[in-house]
Amino acid sequence: MRNRLDAEMDRLHNLLLEMGAMCESAIACSIKALLEGDRANAQRAVELEIDINQHEKDIEELCYKLLLRQQPVARDLRKISAALKMVTDMERIGDQAADIAEIALLGNATKADGTLTTREMSLAAIGMVNDAIDAYVQQDLALAHKVIADDDTVDDLFNKAKQELAIMLISQPGEAECVIDLLMVAKYLERIADHAVNIAEWVVFTVTGEYYKDETVQGGTHGPDLHG
User: Is residue 216 part of a domain?
Assistant: First the structure.
C-alpha cells in the first residue's frame, strides 16, 4: 500500500512540475510576443494554455483518486490538499498569460514608448512564479516567504506603470489603444504575482501544516480558502 502511495505521490509531484514549467514558459512567450511583436510566441502561449488546462484536470483526478483510495495521512494529505489549490492558481496564470498573448496579437502595445515598466513587471512576476515552483519542489520555506515578500515589488511597479501610462495618454493621445492594452497587461501581471503568492502560501501549509497569511496584503486574490 505504501509503495503504491509513494509512486502516485511521485507522479503528482512530476505533474505539478510540468504544469509549473508550462506556466513559466507561457508567461515568457506572451511577454516576448508583446514587447517584440512576435506572433509565433503569442501563439505558443495560447497553445500552452490548453496543455495547462489539461494538466489541471489530470492533477485534480489524481488527487481525488489518492484521497478516495489511498487514505493518505499527515504530510501526504497536506501535499494533496495543497496540490488541489495550487493547480487552480497555475491554471489562472496560464489564462492570464494567454490573455497577454491575445493583446500582443493585436499589435498595439509596440506602437509607443512606455513598455520599460511592463518589462520590469514581467521579469518580477516570472521570477515570483519560478521561485514559487522551486519552493514547492524544494519544500523551501525561506523561498516561499521570499515570494510573498516580493509581491510588494510587483505592486509598486503596477502603480508606477499606471502613472506612466496616464502620462503617455496625455502626451501621446493618438496611442490610446496602446495605453489601454499596456494597462491591461500590467493588471494581468499583477494578478499573476498574486497567484504566485497563493502558491507560496500553500507551500508553507504543506511544510508546516499551518496556513500562512500576509495580513498586510490589501485586496488581490491572496489567501487560499482552506474551506473552498
Answer: no
pLDDT tens for each residue of 126-172: 999 999 989 988 899 999 999 999 999 999 999 999 998 898 889 88
224 belongs to a structural domain: no
Q: Cβ(30)–Cβ(41) under 8 Å?
A: yes
CA dihedral 151, 134, 88, 214 (to 10 degrees): -30
Residue 45's identity, in one-letter code, is: A
SS3 of 162-223: HHHHHHHHHHCHHHHHHHHHHHHHHHHHHHHHHHHHHHHHHHHHHHHCCCCCCCCCCCCCCC
What is the residue range of 11's domain? 2-208
Question: What is the tens place of the pLDDT at every residue in 114-127?
Answer: 567 888 999 999 99
In a domain, 225, yes or no: no
The span from the CA of 71 to the CA of 55, in Å, is 23
Domain of 127, CATH number, reads: 1.20.58.220
pTM summary value: 0.87
